[in-house]
């Protein structure tokens, strides 16, 4: 069972570079989301989507873009990386995002911006 | 302004003893609480949850207690095992809330010593 798959696992960028973090799920979940985890900060929501073609901002959206063209995929784009975006990024999904559903997380992408 | 607080960054216990992880919240609109466990280099996984209509929920060695008047919940692990060593995140959801309204605490690193 693949579940939620994130690529790459590690990435080093220079300030100003762009990149896309990939996230795919094979559980036919409508809800997908991106979190970042920083030391001493817990998990903070960046962007989320409740279905194909629908996205919205979370707590810390600045510097990130998302799109949802298919149910399976929810890529996160950094347009111009900054050192403040050094973090561990987790993609998570659930059936609909409504109600009391548990989230399924990917294994994370560790990003360093120099 | 932290709405979900895990005031102990770390906890160390002996194998076979009880582990008690604490979580406090400030938002009285929260009515559903979850615990996620995270191993190094992996994403968080759902552990146990509790609704505000209950004061206890049990699943095997894991029990979550909720004290609404004190806005406090705790996760008890009995008996603790070395495989329980992980970071534990407390999360809270407001009434009628969806997954994009989840608020996570900063996490507590539990180490269970053999």
Q: Which features would summarize this protein structure in a list?
A:
heterodimer, A: 114 residues, mainly beta, 7-stranded mixed beta sheet, 4-stranded antiparallel beta sheet, 11 strands, B: 114 residues, 5-stranded antiparallel beta sheet
Report on the architecture of this protein.
Chain A is mainly beta. Helices cover 0% and strands 51% of the residues of chain A. In chain A, a hairpin with a 2-residue loop joins β5 and β6. The N and C termini of chain A lie far apart (35 Å). Chain B has strands at residues 4-5, 10-14, 19-25, 30-38, 45-51, 56-59, 62-67, 72-77, 86-94, 103-104, 108-113. In chain B, the strands form 2 sheets. In chain B, strands 2, 4, 5, 9, 10 and 11 form a 6-stranded mixed sheet that branches. In chain B, strands 1-3-8-7-6 form a 5-stranded antiparallel sheet, with no helix packed on it. The radius of gyration of chain B is 13 Å and the shape is globular. The mean pLDDT of chain B is 95. Chains A and B meet through β5, β9 and β10 of A and β4, β5 and β9 of B.
Class inferred from helices and paired strands of chain A: mainly beta
Helix and strand sequence of chain A: EEEEEEEEEEE
Shape of chain A: globular
Bin the strand percentage of chain A: over 45%
Helix segment tally of chain A: 0
On the 0 to 100 scale, the average pLDDT of chain A is 95
- Using the alpha-carbon principal axes, give the shape of chain B: globular
What fraction, in percent, of the residue positions of chain B are helical?
Answer: under 10%
Q: What layout of secondary structure does this protein have?
A:
The complex is a heterodimer of chains A (114) and B (114).
Chain A: E1 4-7, E2 10-13, E3 19-25, E4 31-38, E5 42-51, E6 54-57, E7 64-66, E8 76-78, E9 87-94, E10 104-105, E11 109-113
Parallel strand pairs in A: 2-11
Antiparallel strand pairs in A: 1-3, 3-8, 4-5, 4-9, 5-6, 7-8, 9-10, 9-11
Chain B: E1 4-5, E2 10-14, E3 19-25, E4 30-38, E5 45-51, E6 56-59, E7 62-67, E8 72-77, E9 86-94, E10 103-104, E11 108-113
Parallel strand pairs in B: 2-11
Antiparallel strand pairs in B: 1-3, 3-8, 4-5, 4-9, 6-7, 7-8, 9-10, 9-11
